[in-house]
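Hi R.,

Here's the chain you asked about this morning:
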Amino acid sequence: MGEKIKVVVTGVSGRMGQMLVETIAASDRVVLSGALERSGHGWIGRDLGVAMGGAETGVIVSDTAPAVFAKADVVIDFTVPAATIAFAAAAAKAGVAHVIGTTGMTEEEIAQLEGPAQQTVIVRAGNMSLGVNLLVQVTKRVAAALDEDYDIEIVEAHHNRKVDAPSGTALMLGEAAAEGRGVALEDVSDRARDGITGARERGRIGFAAIRGGDIVGEHDVMFAALGERITLRHVASDRSVFARGALKAALWTQGKAPGAYDMLDVLGLAEQ
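And here is the predicted structure, written out as tokens:
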């Protein structure tokens, strides 16, 4: 087997950060070469393994992206939009690939990734799991097959610490449904209902967000018509599914031309 791919994890103290560290440690194809946290965080300067409550790993948590990226092949990033934009610029300058699982990014923030994508490989997805990306494809096809007699509602549920709504995955599903119907999601999206809203408008795509406990991620796409209802569903019961998907994306980036990609590219589903 060839040399292992060197991976940096950002936001390493978070739930996804720690899950990524564990997933990388269990892999025989990649090695953790660096760990990043925000300036002032209590883990800065500490051995990552010790900070996580285990044995020393030799990886010291840093807040200096350029120095850490210089020794890596790929960065895996599940943080916040502002940090992700900064990491994208640093990764492009260092010539390392950037896998982005950060959610809650606006169209303006996503547009700021276009420059870095001209210099390096960027894989960005609202959800890294195989199952969700298959669900995206199915949603698009079902929406294309059914007319506006079928109301589309997307219901998502996550843990009580999630800060953005609708989730990135819900928006992915909404985009797929809108694309299937040949419309722009921004023109048909219903994000919130409260009070006397009036009857549901034909052709709209509705979103509902549930937050509670430790729900990892549940997404339903409902096509509801008179007399029948079709529901497509994905349930994630363990965050490791996202970490494994991100690792698959990280491996895929090696040898690819600079550009902006998503998980459909990684999974070979983009043209289907």
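One quick note: The chain has a mean pLDDT of 95.

Cheers,
M.
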